[in-house]
Amino acid sequence: xxxxxxxxxxxxxxxxxxxxxxxxxxxxxxxxxxxxxxxxxxxxxxxxxxxxxxxxxxxxxxxxxxxxxxxxxxxxxxxxxxxxxxxxxxxxxxxxxxxxxxxxxxxxxxxxxxxxxx
Length: 118
Ligand code: FES
Hints:
single chain; mainly beta; 6-stranded antiparallel β-sheet; 0% helix; binds FE2/S2 (inorganic) cluster; 4-stranded antiparallel β-sheet; Rieske Iron-sulfur Protein; 44% strand
């Protein structure tokens, strides 16, 4: 995995994400307190640009069909999306934001299997 310098820390505001690109991949930077997170830039449901989503109460709401994801870790909170957001490694060095070009392994707990009716 290679880290790429994509933005300055100051470019990411509290109430708005910042979309950056590494090659053909869109990546969304979000501020979480005094830290940043990097997630896939397109919704896993149908590809909406998540930079146009709403940030409220610790959640990111997709602009198209309103799936919700936790800002803290990208975990899925509300459908219709079925998957959490892929997260990318991120480092801040001297005010510059560096992001990895490969998503991290999924850290989310798998949802329990639905049991079939008896
Ligand atoms: S594209 Fe995001 S919920 Fe449908």
